[in-house]
Amino acid sequence: MLLPRDVSSLIGLEVGIKSRPAREISGDLYDFFEHGHEYTLVVFGDVSGKGAAAALYGALISGLLRILAPRRRSPAQLMKTLNEALLERKVDTQYATLSLLLWNSQTYTFTITNAGGVPPMLCRNGETVESPVEGVPIGLLEDQEYDHLDIVVQPGDVFLLYSDGVEDQLSGDEEYGRERLEKLVLGSCHQSPREIAKAIFEDIDRFRGATPLTDDQTVIVFKVL
Q: Which of 43, 157, 163, 214 is buried deepest, with most CB atoms within 10 A?
């Protein structure tokens, strides 16, 4: 109930979202904050641990962002401020990886700041483009500075965010891995974001067979219009 339920499109983007918990409640989190008609802030994160404790910490992060996000447009500054706010409310053993993406629908640019999250995947013209941006997870260390990366996208591009529960899914002792995910995304770039998200989860289930979910799994797929 704490997660957005109906985000099928943003200006310039079509969106597909699919998420499922490893237990009854997920520690993955995502949200969207609009800044007028031009900007949208996309929040995508993964809280340490699983279950209710992780979900409650995720709710704390979402609540703080609802206060902080409307006041700032720099993802790097917002991440720094959020980290400081979490450390003022320190919860033992809890932290989160988080990505903040500011979408500019006028310039078709994602400005990305990452705090330990899985790097996003960009699919363009049958190839994937790496988007390396790193940072320390939030809620761990004081006085952290965060960098940002601008990614200019083009019509037809597919831009994928996913939690580490996707790559880390086990089948026996074998992990699903980024290489298998990349192959699947490249083969389905022509489909809609919802169809791509569905195909990813179906492929994970074929891979894992009778193996239970290793971790919470969430994917957000953007297609540039």
A: 163
- What is the domain partition of the chain in residue ranges? 9-224
Mean pLDDT by 10 residues, the chain (225 residues): 67 94 88 87 91 87 90 88 93 90 96 94 90 89 94 96 96 96 95 97 97 95 96
75-88 helix and 51-68 helix, angle to the nearest 10 degrees: 120
Residue 149 · residue 117 · CB < 8 Å = no
Architecture of domain 9-224: 4-Layer Sandwich (3.60)
